[in-house]
Structures are given as structure tokens and as C-alpha cells.
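As a warm-up, study this chain.
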Amino acid sequence: MEKAAQVALQCICADYNISIEDHNYYALEVAKERLFTAREKAQTKQWWFNMARQQVTAQQNEITRQTMILAKICNNFFDILSLRMYPQRPNNDDPIITYTGANPPVGRVREFAKSLYHFVTSTNPAGGYTRMI
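Now compare it with the structure written out below.
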């Protein structure tokens, strides 16, 4: 049966001037190896990307948690600390913190509140504070 198929294939090739060359096998294997390597690299990069995204998400969640704690502290001591925080509006253009005291601050507690405000918003004209959020 196999011999008959081989003879039929040879006749078709001869009649239609078809040539079957098997000499590209090595090139095919090289191409397969390159494709395999490229896929492995892509999967590795995807894994690293996913890990980085998880780390960023974890850091964002921690910052959100700390902001909520700071907001609770500021809002619970509103009577002595001239700050109001609204952390539930992070994507809004409104500031999440406002200083509600005298300008310039009067007294050490008001100075502390103003300094804390500048720290959170990174707006201290004298510098020295880094932005928290």
C-alpha cells in the first residue's frame, strides 16, 4: 500500500513538475527553537509584569490604608487640629486635605497642623517635606 502511494506521488510530481525538497528541515527546527525561546521570554516577562502589578497594588492599598488612618486622626482631633481630610475622593480634583486654621498659624498646635498639611500636599514653600500621597 505504501509503495503504491509512493508511486502515485512520484507520478503526480512528474506530471505537474512538482519537486519536494526536504533540505529545509534544519531551518524549520531553528525557527521552531527561536519561536519556543521567544514564547518562553514572553511568558517570563508576563510573569514579571504580573508580579510588579501585584506589588504596586499592594503598595497602593497600604497607602490608602495609611491615608484613611491619617484622615481619621485629623478628623477626630478637628477641634484642636485645623485639618479636615476627605480621603474618599482620591480621583477627584478636590484636595483630600484642607487646612482650616489661621494663616499664618497662631500657636504651636496650629503650626503643627500647617506643617502636616504641607507634608501631605507637598506644598511647603520652605521645603523640607516629602509628599505623602
